[in-house]
Design brief:
The chain is an alpha+beta fold. The chain is about 50% helix and about 15% strand. It contains 16 helices and 14 strands. It has helices spanning about 1-20, 90-95, 125-135, 265-300, 305-310, 330-355, 365-375, 380-395, 400-425, 435-460, 490-500, 505-515, 525-550, 555-565, 565-580, 590-625; strands at about 40-45, 45-50, 105, 110-120, 140-145, 145, 150-155, 160-165, 165, 170, 180, 185-190, 200-210, 235-250.
């Protein structure tokens, strides 16, 4: 039977994912060409926004970043003023603000206690700086595309690794005035190609707090034992100094990111994968049992010519005349499903590109840029599938489906992002997107996305409609009372928890990477988890759809969407748990930023998983009703 083959493919899919597990570690292709330096050649040190990290209590108190040249920091500026570095669209949207600096570095030229500048910091700005020190803010510098890092040791493996960024200052428990770091020991590791050419393969900065006094001749001594404390009740004179040490290394340019890409405990990722595989195998076994045994017997009995068997018809065959009835608000359903197709192909393409190593950490913001551009390009898929499904449901207004598709998901996300951006502007955060960037995104939407959506809708509306395999009755059948566990809310909650259980461990690493500014690179694991998510969502939805049909409830269209999409509710609840366990946000701007982004992520996750559930249920329903004889 074809149904038996369907069940075997469901089991085979889960086995295939397990066989792909050894390939989970995606290989890495550098994202930029190497720069070969000659001895004495200038090496530019670039500065980026200061970002928050864990405070002394191991909590994150802010999610706002602030520009390095924010006038309240009073950092030294290069002659002629700071010059912005060209950045990608994704880098700008996620808060990177990279500029040149006043640091003077030359390949293989060590310097000791070089004076950068002397600044007077008024007491009015000291409160701002000390507050950022207490909240654990970090400097973020770049040399040859590599972030300046702090050397840390893994408590479990005792292995050294590089943690991106270094502290703005330090404070001890009970210390009233924190120490401000104004001296920087810069260690640049280099790899020698030949007698002439060298490459940068590592950057480590050890900051220090020194109350350095600058004599009249301008040559400072960095031996001061007294720390640099900033006091709010007076003006503070601060001397910024730095030393540079060049250190030979055996690391090659191709492997220079290995020290930065440190997994705290790789076994957790494997545990996540095994946990997800157990759920998939369990669901595949249940689905295979239903398809190959229960449904096989049902279809054999329904197709039997025995009059006694025909009198025993019950369950899902009784609703054959209503199961393909167009659902209520089918235009909105078509728009959601069209947007789900758009998100699905965006995610798949992004993961494949990342899996091949083309979205390396060397190219800052490349992942965000790729996702945004792919979402815009796949507007054709949204328009095509929305119009085709709406027409198949009986919709006749192409113009209305186009307008709704164009405005629904992008419009909601745009409104939320504008609220977040407005809060960032009010808070004077550098993470606020510039007006030029926002206009550029809008231009891409109007010039590229909307025409592609209109074009896709035109072809989708002209495509042959999806005809039901059985005739639809004119009068809807009365639906009997349902048991409590098959009512909308309980069934959706049961379906959502199974889907969420397959991804929640990897979700922790993703959120940790986003909010704690860590480099996420295990795209091999992420790809497998996504495959498991698709399989789990499809199987859970098909099972619950079958149970609903057996209870003579034919309203499976919307049920399949919110049963599969209910996992987004658990993702949001997990975001709340993450907030109370890892964060302690004090400002309204941080709260709105965090929960605003969580709302957007959960909305998109609901649409994505809801579409997967609908497509799986649609294929399942068409298959079983095509296999029986209808009088």
């Amino acid at each position: 039977m074809r149904l038996a083959g369907f069940g075997m493919r469901a089991v085979a899919a889960s086995v295939t994912v397990g066989l792909l597990a050894p390939l989970a570690r995606a290989f890495y292709l550098p994202g930029i060409a190497p720069h070969d330096y000659k001895i004495g050649e200038a090496v530019e040190l670039q500065v980026n926004s200061l970002t928050p990290s864990l405070n002394a209590e191991n909590k994150l108190e802010s999610v706002l970043s602030f520009g390095y040249y924010d006038e309240r920091f009073h950092f030294c500026q290069p002659e002629g003023g700071p010059k912005a570095v060209h950045e990608s669209l994704g880098s700008i949207l996620f808060g990177d603000r990279i500029y040149g600096s006043a640091f003077d570095l030359h390949m293989l030229k060590d310097t000791s206690c070089q004076v950068l500048c002397q600044q007077k910091i008024p007491g009015a700005d000291v409160a701002f700086i000390n507050d950022k020190i207490m909240k654990g803010y970090n400097y973020n510098w770049l040399i040859d595309g590599l972030p300046a890092a702090t050397v840390k040791v893994d408590d479990r493996t005792e292995q050294q690794f590089y943690s991106v960024g270094f502290e703005l200052g330090s404070s001890q428990a009970g210390q009233l005035v924190p120490h401000f770091h104004n001296h920087y020991e810069i260690t640049v590791q280099y790899h020698t190609l030949d007698a002439v050419h060298h490459r940068v393969v590592g950057v480590v900065v050890t900051p220090a707090s020194k109350n350095t006094v600058l004599p009249k001749d301008g040559t400072a001594s960095c031996d001061a034992a007294e720390p640099m404390n900033l006091h709010e009740d007076r003006d503070n004179s601060v001397v910024f100094t730095y030393s540079v040490k060049w250190e030979a290394s055996e690391k090659s340019w191709a492997t220079r990111w290995d020290d930065y890409l440190h997994a705290v405990d790789p076994r957790i990722h494997w545990f996540s994968l095994i946990n997800s595989m157990v759920i998939v195998v369990f669901l595949s076994a249940m689905l295979g049992l239903i398809l190959m045994r229960t449904l096989h017997k049902d279809i054999a009995r329904y197709n039997s010519d025995d009059a006694e068997d025909l009198q025993e018809d019950f369950g899902w065959k009784l609703v054959h005349g209503d199961v393909f009835r167009p659902p209520q608000r089918f235009e909105l359903l078509a728009v959601i499903l069209g947007s789900g197709y758009q998100l699905f192909w965006m995610v798949v393409t992004t993961l494949v590109i990342a899996l091949l190593g083309f979205l390396s950490p060397s190219s800052r913001g490349s992942l965000t840029t790729a996702m945004l551009l792919l979402f815009i390009v796949y507007g054709f898929s949204a328009g095509y599938n929305s119009a085709h499904l709406c027409h198949s449901f009986g919709g006749l207004s192409l113009k209305r489906i186009i307008i709704t598709t164009v405005l629904f998901v992008p419009g909601i996300c745009w409104v939320v992002l504008m609220i977040i951006n407005l809060c960032l502007v009010v808070a004077h955060s550098s993470a606020a997107a510039p007006i030029g960037t926002l206009l550029g995104v809008m231009a891409l939407w109007f010039v590229v996305s909307i025409p592609l959506t209109v074009c896709g809708a035109y072809f989708g509306f002209r495509r042959k409609t999806i005809d039901p395999p059985v005739r639809v009755n004119q009068i809807p059948r009365q639906i009997p009372d349902q048991p409590w566990y098959l009512k909308p809310i309980p069934s959706a909650l049961m379906g959502g928890i199974l889907t969420f259980g397959a991804i929640f461990i990897e979700l922790y690493f993703i959120m940790n990477s986003i909010w704690f500014h860590k480099v996420y690179y295990v795209f091999g694991f992420l790809f497998l988890v996504f495959c498991i998510l698709v399989i789990t969502t499809a199987e859970v939805t098909v099972l619950l759809t079958y149970f609903h049909l057996c209870a003579e409830d034919y309203r499976w269209h919307w049920r399949s969407v919110y049963t599969a999409g209910a996992s987004a509710l658990y993702v949001f609840l997990y975001g709340i748990l993450f907030y109370f366990s890892r964060l302690r946000l004090a400002s309204y701007a941080s709260l709105i930023t965090y929960f605003g982004w969580m709302a957007i992520a959960c909305l998109l996750f609901f649409i994505l998983t809801g579409t997967i559930g609908f497509v799986a249920s649609h294929l399942f329903v068409r298959r079983i009703y095509s296999a029986i004889k209808i009088d």
